[in-house]
Amino acid sequence: MTDPLAQLLDVVGKNEYVGWYTYLPEQADNIKLELPQKPIIVSEFGAEAKAGNHASKDLRWTEESQVDFYQHNFTMLSNIPQVRGLAPWILMDFRSPTRNIPELQDGFNRKGLISEDGQQK
Q1: 96, 115 Cβ separation under 8 angstroms
Q2: CA distance 52 to 106
Q3: Phi, psi (degrees; rounded to nearest 5) at 51
Q4: What's CA 29's distance to the chain center, in Å?
Q5: HSE on the CB side for 30, CA within 13 Å?
Q6: What is the C-alpha to C-alpha distance for residues 74 and 57, in angstroms, rounded to an integer?
Q7: What's residue 17's pLDDT?
Q8: pLDDT tens digit string along 59-100?
Q9: First-to-last CA distance in the chain?
Q10: Own/partner pairs for 54-63, CB < 8 Å, 24+ apart?
Q11: Strand ranges, E, within the chain
């Protein structure tokens, strides 16, 4: 994190998607994020899964892959002493017209921990 503004802040917010947009989930275990030596809030992190889509954790968009993502990210984040809080992106799947992978997104952001109809993933 090389933004000079970070040095002027008391607390830094960081969005982080290691294992979803970059790398594989298991690589998060050993990633060393370069972060300022001050309190960090992980303001956004997550992976998409469609509720009810079950298969190997190695197949994206499955509930198993979403769980695997979170397990590895918790490992990574627990090794960063300055992390003071985090917020998964998002609690519940929501409509997003630009998300149109047929049979997976169908107009929804699927990073929720709960489906759009209230099912826990």
Answers
A1: no
A2: 14
A3: -55, 135
A4: 14
A5: 4
A6: 16
A7: 96
A8: 999 999 999 999 999 999 999 999 999 999 999 999 999 999
A9: 32
A10: 61/104, 61/110, 63/121
A11: 12-15, 40-45, 83-88, 94-95, 108-109
